[in-house]
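Quarterly update, task 2.4: adenosine-5'-triphosphate-bound model.
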Amino acid sequence: MSQFLHYLELPYLLQGILITLQLTGLGLLGGLVLGFVLASMQLSRHRALSAVARGYTIVFRGTPLILQLVFAYDALPHAGLTLSPLMAAGLALAANEATFIAEVFRSGVLGVDKGQVTAGQALGMTPRVIMRRVIAPQAVRLMVPALGNEAVTTLKNSSLASFIAVQELTLRSTQLASSTFDFFSVFFASGVMYLVLTGAISAVQLAAERALDLDRPAPRSWADRLLPLRRPVAAPVPVAVAAKDTVADDEPWAPPAPPEPWEREARVAALDGAPAAVEVGNLHKSYGEHVVLDGLNMTVRTGEVVALLGPSGSGKSTLLRTINHLEDPDSGAVLINGRRLGYQDNGKPLSPAKIADARAEAGVGMVFQHFNLFSHLTALENVAGPLRWVHRMPAKEAEHRAGELLERVGLAHRAGALPRHLSGGQQQRVAIARALAPNPRVLLLDEPTSALDPELVHEVLEVIRGLAREDGLTMLIATHQLRFAHEVADRVVFISNGSVTEEGPAEELLTRPRHPATARFLRVMGAQSVGGVA
Ligand SMILES: Nc1ncnc2c1ncn2[C@@H]1O[C@H](COP(=O)(O)OP(=O)(O)OP(=O)(O)O)[C@@H](O)[C@H]1O
């Protein structure tokens, strides 16, 4: 036992630990830098870069590290690069680790929900802003456990450097054991030293995971306070505001009646002669052989609310995404307030960064079926963030506007909540507030209630109804809610087989369809909804 304790504090072995740590640091830092480059190349749109990175990965992941160590130490001098044993081992470790770390980076980036990236694009964020504000913060959280693992692996792999005579802990332990013949005590002490080192890495990993944990409770001890990156807790909100979100049990919700004929007439008169906000001309879009939009034409006037109906798979989402240039059309044109989004004046497509700016300028807001909120941000940050990052609004002003909009959708009391702590209806209301924040001229809503439980549908419809009736916002809404379309829409456009089958005033089309396909659709959908349309 005394020998074991003696070895634990023997300077010869302690210096070995120092060299092990240097080697691990070289391997890990080099691996992180090279891994980042490799992951970026693999994720790049340029096939040549991606192919080079994959080739590198195949070679360095598919050959033993020990061969790579020997190569770096013995073969590189023939190519004119002579390195010390420590540097050669560090280089080999870094080159090998990089392939695994690149996979960690890549899976972290790919692990972020694609819907959030689409939402970022729709909000006018450039690819760089999306990477920095949406993907990276979430990818880092996904990557920490795997990176901790890689750090431990690098530390253990550093022992292979003994093959090229690097004086690290394993080599020194072997030398000591050979000279003292006290194999058990020496290797036991060496094992304990490795355990302390890997334990320290695990502790750092756990601390990082905790620091990045969005659900971390408020700090209770001084140690908690040392951890940075805590999410701010929203200030309590007056009960009067909080009460807005709840519906009393004894007050059953009933859908409001459709507008009176005079109300409809007043709206028709108000819209008469209004300029076109969205013009879609001869739009074609196919996915491979599958033709989704086949020469579709339609117009939405400023201030008009148009309900887009059609069977499942008829291309409603594709149309909305193409209007906002989230999809490239194969041919045809989309004009937003008279301007073609996504193209230069000479007809050439804009770069992704320029498209993002054009989107922000065009003022098209979008609400998605699955909400697509940024899951690492609170409700308030979801609304305020894009105002700061895209529209350069000062933080205080952005938060103030976000607070107002959350109050408007009845969610001021949930401003500090993460999306996963909100119900589906609440998430969709936050998504609507986020889309409204930059004051869009046109709002596209892609089946905003179809992912919601039936009892949550009305709270979202109430908000949209308010936008149509009180704010006079131009809206194009893909929906299966016939009663809602009847009540809110000025006009209904029915699409099937990639083009407009029938369109007309909501009242007329929903109650007296002319085309058999529309009549069939309304019969099926009407039978599914309680009470049908009327
Ligand atoms: N990225 C894609 N790649 C291949 N096919 C796609 C893609 N996006 C949509 N589609 C196909 O295009 C067709 C139209 O899809 P879209 O989502 O636009 O229909 P929809 O009318 O919105 O349907 P739903 O009412 O069910 O949401 C579908 O057959 C769908 O499978």
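Highlight for this quarter: The two ends are 89 Å apart (CA to CA).
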